[in-house]
Amino acid sequence: MDVIKVSGTSRTSAVAGAIAGVFRENKRAEVQAIGAGAVNQAVKALVLSRGYLAEDGYDVVFTAEFSDVDIDGKVRTAIKITVQSRLPVTAGDAPPPSSP
Question: Which of 6, 26, 78, 99 is 20 to 30 A distant from 37 in Cα terms?
C-alpha cells in the first residue's frame, strides 16, 4: 500500500479522493505530511474523505503519530495519519462510568 503524501499546495478534494480510493481497496490508508501547511491540507482532506466513505457505509477513524522520514539524506519529522475502520464497541468494551 502506498503512503499518500500531502504538501501545503495539495488540492484538498484530490487528496480526499485518493484517501477514499486507497481505503476502499485496502480497508486502510496512510497519509504523510511535513510542515504546518501540509498538515492543514491533510486534516481537511481526511475530514472530507470521512464523508465520502460514510456515503459507502464505512465509519472510519484517524490516528496520528510522528514519523522520521529521510529526504535527500536529511531526516525530517512527518505526521503520519492512519485511516482505519471503526470497530463496533460492545458493552464489555466500554469503560466503566466515572464516579462524581
Answer: 26
List Cβ neighbours of 94 (8 Å cut-off, separation of 6 or more).
none
Q: How far is CA 71 from CA 75, 77, 95, in A?
A: 6, 10, 42
Average pLDDT over all residues of the chain: 90
Residue 46 · residue 31 · CB < 8 Å: yes
**In the numeric block, which cell numbers belong to residue 39?**
498538515
- Determine the distance from the C-alpha atom of residue 91 to the mean position of all C-alpha atoms in its chain, rounded to a whole number: 27
**Cell numbers at residue 38, please?**
501540509
Domains located in the chain, CATH noted = 4-85 (3.30.110.20)
**pTM attached to this predicted model:** 0.84
Alpha helices in 8-98 (DSSP H): 12-26, 36-55
Average pLDDT over residues 68-78: 96
The answer to whether the beta carbons of residues 56 and 25 sit under 8 Å apart is no
Q: Give yes or no for residue 15 having a pLDDT over 80.
A: yes
